[in-house]
Amino acid sequence: MQGLVLAGGEGSRLRPLTLSVPKHLIPLAGRAMIEYPIGHLVEAGVVDVGVVVGYLGHLLREYLGDGSRLGARLRYVEQRERLGIAHAIHLAIEAGAVDGPFVVYLGDNILAGGVAKYVEKFREEEPDVYILLSKVKDPSRFGVAVLRDGRVVKLVEKPKEPVSDMAVVGVYMFRDPDLVEKAFRSLKPSWRGEYEVTDLIQWFIDNGHRVAYDVVDGWWKDVGTPESLLEALYLLLDSVGGRVEGEVSGEVVGRVVVERGAVVEGRVYGPAYLGRGVYVGRGAVVEQYASLEAGVRALSGAVSRSLVMDEAVLDLGRLRLVDSVVGRRSVVKCGRELHGEIRLAVSDFSRVEL
Question: What angle do CA 238, 243, 247 make, to 5 degrees?
């Protein structure tokens, strides 16, 4: 069993956060986003993993290396043009990154509990294609599956009219790469100019091949916007256990992770995450569902329900930063007597003075 993680997209809906970093390297509670799918594959016993890169791909290569740090053996495939998921899968097969049964995991998707049990079911039942589904409130944002008598009869990409509320999760498993290539050769670009994975799988349905499915029993998050990025963070923090390895002279209440080298002189209320080298000053409060990544300095004010990336500085005075994303090495500073809440989406190396 081999794996394929797709990480070639530009993350345009996450701008300005993705102007200087691919979205797959945005940190969430101490791990880059792409580490979650790779880690889930390794947990499922899938250690030979191809990574399809494109936009700022050199940064992904530098960060992940050969994958040994994550327990994987990584091989990179470049997608020069963003022509869709099916095209990325085709490139990986063409490059020899997969040559037997394989599982595709989108690099900006995260599933609660991983994929081990689904990979095991695929191994046991050996369908031609195996997909995962999740019930959603807004099917128009996803590819959806139409089910009839326990079978997948049709897949529709981002339907304008409601045909199903069962979204196709960003995990797909295929038994035979040669069949996938045969299916790909029959495809034409969609109205978006992309080769859609829903069309690829529809070929298997139309040609009488066995397409099996399962409904995921935990949460699933497709991270494409600042809002969904924060939602993924909240879900991840919901599952953390308290762990204090840094220095605490202030107050830590609830499930809080304080990594080695972090210093807490102020107050922290969990669930929250403080990365290596984080400093929380006496005048600062870190509230629920906040993640301060490595090297962040919170000098004053409060931060809640927010992601603050590596080495950013918060000097907020009496302000509360809420529902926000602050990029790496950015500075947010308040030099006046202001009260209340602020919401920001700030890219790397920015400076905000109030």
Answer: 130
Rounded to two decimals, the pTM is: 0.89
Angstrom distance (rounded) from CA 301 to CA 321: 8
The per-residue pLDDT for range 108-131, each reduced to its tens digit, is: 988 888 899 999 999 999 999 999
User: Quick one: DSSP state of residue 34?
Assistant: T
DSSP 241: P
Cis, peptide link before residue 37, omega less than 30° from 0: no
DSSP β-bridge partners for residue 12? none
Instruction: Using CA atoms of 12, 16, 19, 23 in order, give the dihedral in degrees to the nearest 10.
Output: -60
In the numeric block, which tokens belong to residue 109?
Answer: 């998707």
Alpha carbon separation from 159 to 134, 154, 165, 223, 302 (Å, rounded): 16, 12, 10, 19, 42
Q: 173-227 pLDDT, tens per residue? A: 999 999 999 999 998 888 788 888 989 999 999 999 999 999 988 888 888 888 8
- Work out the burial of residue 342: count CB atoms within 10 Å of its CB; fewer than 13 is exposed, 13-18 middle, 19 or more buried: middle
298 and 320 in contact (C-beta within 8 Å)?
Answer: no
Nearest to 180 by CA among 222, 218, 209, 158: 209
Our CA dihedral for 75, 80, 84, 88, rounded to 10 degrees, sits at -20
Phi, psi of 57 (to 5 degrees): -60, -25
CB 280 within 8 A of CB 299: no
